[in-house]
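User: My instructor asked us to take a sequence, write out its structure as tokens, and then describe one feature of it. I'm not sure where to start. Here is the sequence I was given:
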Amino acid sequence: PSLSSTGISDKLANCICFNARSLNNKLLQLHHLVADRPAVVSVTETWLTDDMPDCLLTDCHNSYTVHRKDRLGRRGGGVCVLVDSNAFQSATVHIPTKYDNVELIAVDLLCGNFTCRFVTVYRPPSSDTDTDGAQYCLQLAECIDFLGRQNVTMVICGDFNIPNLNTSGHNLLSCSSIICDVFQRHGLTQF
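Assistant: Let's start with the prediction itself. The structure tokens for your sequence are:
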């Protein structure tokens, strides 16, 4: 089935993605956002730690399920997805531990017999040709390849920190080339 024939595309049209650069001091704004009942809220750079309970993110709106991956070991980063249970059933996708340093969370959104894999990514900034940045992108691409193996429709959103995305692919170890290649392999389009 296609996205439009399942009704999932209408629900995904009611989706919000933003970079918070810390939710800790923006909880009131997040609560106002959730009060408008978006089906999915995707947040990068949450800066959350395990001492922040999920219910504080949703202002106790019990219809939201919180899926999150906090950055471990240092400040910043982190990703989370809030899913309105009235729109979708949802389940966090298990990702192998070899990708623990990749700031990515994948959530399967279930609508009848159709599953859409909703992936939120945060890539820390680096220059397009920085060696460490390219290694991170290679691991991120490998993780996306893993998530795409299950033959589900994928929606990827987030902050890739590649302001000048170079689609020409002339430098195989540039971040933009690595990201463009993985998008092409999975038939993804940037909007």
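For the description part of your assignment, you could build on this observation: The longest helix spans residues 131-148. Try explaining in your own words what that tells you about the chain.
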